[in-house]
Amino acid sequence: MSPEVTAFFDEATNTISYVVRDPKGSACAVVDSVLDFDYASGRTDTRSADAIIGFVREKGYEVQWLLETHVHADHLSAAPYIQQELGGRIGIGDNIRIVQDTFGKVFNEGTEFQRDGSQFDQLFHEGDSVHIGQLRVDVLHTPGHTPACLTYVIGDAAFVGDTLFMPDFGTARCDFPGGSSETLFASIQKILALPDETRIFVGHDYKAPGRDDYAWETTVGEQKALNVHVGSGKSAEDFVKMRDARDATLAMPKLIIPSLQVNMRAGQMPPADEQGNVYLKVPVNKL
Ligand SMILES: [Fe+2]
Fold first, then answer.
1. Domain count, the chain
2. pLDDT of 89-112, one tens digit each?
3. With a threshold of 0.90, does the pTM exceed it?
4. CA of 186 to the centre of ligand 1 (A)
């Protein structure tokens, strides 16, 4: 089965969100949505999410799932906002508990912050499968970028989040707490073991030297042949050396501090004070 995939590109965070529909009906899922956030003013905006909501309403689709590939560090998830407007269940990998434990400490969250993943509607385990209408979704645990990263294999399409990027850009960084380049290499081998014609939809695109347009769709076959970090049979050892050296040069994503606090709560803001005010923390010299 080949799902109908519609991409929504957010230029501010280079994120691609997807609406994935069962071609035999109206059921769909939304993968990795974006809540716009202007850090300088502390203001949120729903422009990006509203584009998805408008599309789903216009087509008459029914949202069954809001799938997160991982706890994103570069944008806030709009899953709860889209859920409020359109319904659906919010799912993420069961290793979210590790991520909540790590960042619960970094942000000195009190005991009211549960680290058991209970903020999400469903925690997926390796090998789980669920349905979007009649379309089967198979869950692959693909950690490395973060401990909770998942790949959703939906019919002939794989939503790989931040594991593989476009072949000319390579792979995702592995230097966030709990990340591991060795683990990512092993996870990528699982994705590359899918049939060559499998369509791969990546979570981000930053263009690449010599490429003028954004792109987000490729195939397993193309990744195996051409991926600049892992293609044409590159060894785990070479990959780890390259990835770790490159990660040491990368700045933190602009929105990492607000993103982690919100996304580890399934896209909810921290609890409001008695007056209804909401605050995010900035941990000093912690990240
Ligand atoms: Fe990410």
1. 1
2. 999 999 999 999 999 999 999 999
3. yes
4. 17
